[in-house]
Amino acid sequence: MTSIQFLKPDPSILARRDDIVSSLRSVLPDEAVVSDPVQLRAFETDGFTAYRRLPLAVVLPSSTEEVAAVMEALARKKVPVVPRGAGTSLCGGAIPQEDAVIVSLTRMSRILEVDYPNRLARVEAGVTNLSISEAVSADGFFYAPDPSSQLACTIGGNIAMNSGGAHCLKYGVTTNNLLGVTMVLYDGTVIRLGEGELDPAGLDLLGLVCGSEGQLGLVTEAIVRLIAKPAGAQPVLFGFASSEKAGDCVADIIAAGIIPVAIEFMDKEAIAICEAFAKAGYPLDAEALLIVEVEGSDKEMADQLGRIVEIARRHDVQTIKESQSATEAALIWKGRKSAFGATGRVADYICMDGTVPLSQLAYVLKETGEIVKRYGLRAANVFHAGDGNMHPLILYDVNDPVKRQKAEDAGNDILRLCVDAGGCLTGEHGVGIEKRDLMTHQYNDTDLDQMKAVRAAFDPEWIFNPSKVFPLEGRGETDGGKASADPDTRPSPMEAAE
Amino acid sequence: MIPSDKADRRIEPADETELADAVREAAEEGTPLEIEGGGTRTFGRPVDALATLSTARLSGIVAYSPNEMVATVKAGTPLTELQAALDEANQRFVFEPIDHHTLLGTEGKPTVGGMVAVNASGPRRFVAGACRDSLLGVRFVNGRGEIVKNGGRVMKNVTGLDLVKPMAGSFGTLGVLTEVTLKVQPKPETEATLAVRGLLEADAVTVLAHAMATSTDVTGAAHLPELTAGKVLDGALGSEPATLMRLEGFESSVHERAEKLKAMFGRLGEIETLDAERSQRLWSDIRDVKPFADQRQRPVWRLSMKPSDAHEAVMALRMEAGASAFYDWQGGLAWVRMEGGNTLSGLVRKTVAAHGGGHAMLIRATPSERRFAVPFQPQAKPLVTLEKRIRDAFDPKGILNPGKMVA
Ligand SMILES: Cc1cc2nc3c(=O)[nH]c(=O)nc-3n(C[C@H](O)[C@H](O)[C@H](O)COP(=O)(O)OP(=O)(O)OC[C@H]3O[C@@H](n4cnc5c(N)ncnc54)[C@H](O)[C@@H]3O)c2cc1C
Q: Which residues of chain A neighbour B162 with C-beta distances below 8 Å?
């Protein structure tokens, strides 16, 4: 079986384990260093639960200074470091390796400053996404990127993955809402990019750091943009007899000059799963469902929804559900937002994240169906239709190694299809270990070498997250790719994220 | 070598492959190249080059599908050509790129590549992002003469490191852009601008911050103090200070939001409403720094700071030297003209640092001033080291626009 490989742990590091742990204890309080194997198990995987490795140790620093001290200590010993937030990564980005130390940012979860006149907040990297919005909500503001995992995931993880959410169509993803970071480099140097002004001085390193999957350094603080809340928000739900009709409807809404805050798509399988879980009143007879959300005053929303409904009618919409109250609106969203969790209750799944040009949506959706059928599997599709970011959830059984392999193979075929259709491997979940070996399908060697050269400018020794993002060829021996040892004890970041 | 303003050798490759060959050759010989698009954005430090490499012949729209709101264009394409295609489909750039012609008195046609290379953005930038936020993908030739692609044609993409963002605003020092893909958007049905008159700078910035704290979706927030107000709309706005808020969208919605803002700020005096046509002209004047487009060479600085800090820095500057200014981006972008004729870069930088930080860039100055005044903001030491290593990763021989971004 061709499981995803990690780099083979460096025996000389494993042999120095005690020495490494004691040097960590010399720069951190005792309780901030975890080395007990039982406790380490909580850190052996992330949201990509099919794979796991036990880390050498875990540290839980409380300040940028402590992070810098840790890095200084580890860089001298050339010990790999895996940054970690909440561990909700869906691509294995936060999975450690046996010779690596995890630096977990979860203790750095303070909101340091809220500045309304300048519409920004300065926060520590371990703060959860949702808690920023919660802290400023009473004053009429919010932080826009809203991954469905927002209750659990950290802003540091969001920056690493350039996370998006349902409302990105209007407000953009993390990189469009980030004004600055404080970052610790591999040797313990602390740099600050951006002070709250809009444009960087010099090269746009902030843009480079965002989406770099913990490859360039440890983000310890961030300055994020706050936005005034809209007067109101209202979703409408449409059921269609085919995905093509739903797709055409999306294209026409956009062509009409209406930019809703969100356009979410679900196929029949996803509708059934979500409806069974959330009882949101989704039409079980529909082949495809769209949730379109608009914002504004009551009058503005009525006006926009009127235009949108008219367009939907032109595409033979079968079901129209306009929310009459906040409760109804919440219910419409509940089904969508719990899609991953609900699916997790039905079966194990891997979630693909390819993005395709809007004109290719219907084609890729159809081909996706063909691919999973070929492998004798099922998939549920829920995704951000406004920006072409697809999320086929391929259902399988983690305890069945044959099925698991088939699911991974089907996933890889789907991602190649996305690239071939003019799209990319991952829109918002990151490459991690999951899509690492497909990078060569999207980029040639020159493209990858340029990225690696930039990576090396930050981290010449591959200290950070060494088994991730870039194919391992030429980087030393691999560990043979063992998968999850003991599925029954899997932690469930999915449930935590709901 | 006595630095001249223009190298005498000119290379105009016909396509990307030829361009890559030219750069590879230059790298082998160690020939420094000045990269030129339309030659309209002459800021940064003058480059001591032995040859000029022009993208002029890499021209044309490769793919533009209005339905997908995405356009792929060769770097040397005149901006006017792309703009015309967008107009035809009733679409636009959301980042409202500044045209530097007027301010700098340059001739030539701005190119799409040049726009991206300087990350040219305008009034809507403070809510809708800069050019870099709309830039989805690039192809470029690095300093080794290799053709590299990064990003793509889709709106969301975290596949590998994002080299797209640093390419925007790297002034041709990391690579020669050959093709770019940009996100565009439908034009709104209409727009209008409200003008509150007679406010002092501090009060104006407070008003704009209050407006931005409402749900009215203001997409332009500027303040023109006395003297600068009279320089837009061919003087039609009058010289009284003007605090400006732009609304865009469907007619009824613009009207409703305008009423809301008027109710909020009505106590400050009569609020004027500029209709769509005047509003459009007004914001293009603000975008292109029309108040300082005076044919004279008095130095112009661009300060990018926190909105609440910039006017205080300007105030402090005025105590020490003659300076006039106006503000965009809710106050966070200050355009400052030094009335004494000297750039006073030491003073400008010290003042910015003393008022919450941010950065100052010298946009208009004579070539000799740009050579000695350090046009870009100097950075903290660890960042200087890091930037140097990153530049080496793209252009190890340092042949692309050498020295242009030296700070
Ligand atoms: C149920 C569920 C729903 C999800 N929905 C969405 C969604 O809608 N949109 C979306 O974009 N994603 C979604 N995700 C994916 C995931 O939540 C995001 O990728 C999130 O940003 C990860 O944050 P985290 O704090 O959990 O990071 P982790 O999983 O701990 O780490 C993720 C990556 O970031 C690196 N990292 C973490 N912190 C730092 C730091 N401080 N400095 C440097 N590197 C760091 C890690 O090394 C790793 O590579 C979902 C996940 C789940 C389980």
A: 162, 175, 207-208, 210-212
The Cα-based distances of B94 to A168, A348, B86, B118, B304 in angstroms read 15, 41, 12, 16, 20
* Contact in structure between B351 and B313 (CB atoms under 8 Å): yes
Cβ distance of A427 and B383 shorter than 8 Å:
no
Please answer yes or no on whether B168 and A207 come within 8 Å at the CB atom: yes
Q: Delimit the CATH 3.30.70.2190 region(s) of chain B.
A: 190-287
Distant-in-sequence, close-in-space partners of A348: CB < 8 Å, separation ≥ 6: A49, A50, A395, A396, A397, A398
Q: How far apart are the C-alpha atoms of A191 and B219, rounded to whole Å?
A: 32
Distance A110 CA to ligand 1 centre (A): 18
CB atoms within 10 A of CB A478: 14
Ligand 1 neighbour A146 (Cβ under 6 A): no
- What is the CB neighbour count within 10 angstroms for residue A52? 23
CATH tag, B1-187+377-407 = 3.30.465.10
Kindly determine whether residue A457 and residue B185, on different chains, have CB atoms separated by under 8 Å.
Answer: no
A371 CA distance to ligand 1 centroid (A)?
Answer: 28
* A146 CA to centre of ligand 1 in angstroms: 12
Q: What is the mean pLDDT of chain B?
A: 94
Ligand 1 pocket member A61 (CB < 6 A): no
Structure tokens of B129?
């992002």
Tell me if the domain spanning A347-430 has CATH number 3.30.70.2740: yes
Which chain A residue lies closest to B159 (C-alpha atoms)?
A426
Intervals of CATH 3.30.465.10 along chain B: 1-187+377-407
Complex ipTM: 0.96
CATH architecture of the domain B190-287 equals 2-Layer Sandwich (3.30)
Domain boundaries A233-339, corresponding CATH code = 3.30.70.3450
- pLDDT top residue among A471 and A325: A471
For the CA of A465, the closest atom of ligand 1 is 47
Q: Cβ A453–B160 below 8 Å, yes or no?
A: no
Question: pLDDT per residue over A123-157, tens digit each?
Answer: 999 999 999 999 999 999 999 999 989 999 999 99
- Enter the CATH code of domain A111-228: 3.30.465.10
The pLDDT-based confidence of B270 (bands split at 50, 70, 90) is: confident
The answer to whether A376 touches A406, Cβ cutoff 8 Å, is yes
Are residues A443 and B256, on separate chains, in Cβ contact within 8 Å?
no
pLDDT reading at B1 higher than 50: no
Q: What is the CATH number of domain B295-376?
A: 3.30.70
Say if domain A11-106+445-497 classifies as CATH 3.30.43.10.
Answer: yes
Contacts of A202 (CB under 8 A, 6+ apart): B376, B377, B379, B383, B387, B405, B407
pLDDT band, very low/low/confident/very high, at A483 (cuts 50, 70, 90): low
Interface test with A, best of B141, B161, B173 (most A CBs within 10 A): B161
Q: Is the pLDDT of residue A482 over 80?
A: no
- pTM, two decimals, is 0.96
The CA A158 to ligand 1 mean position distance, Å, reads: 5
What is the distance in angstroms between the Cα of B366 and the nearest Cα belonging to chain A? 21
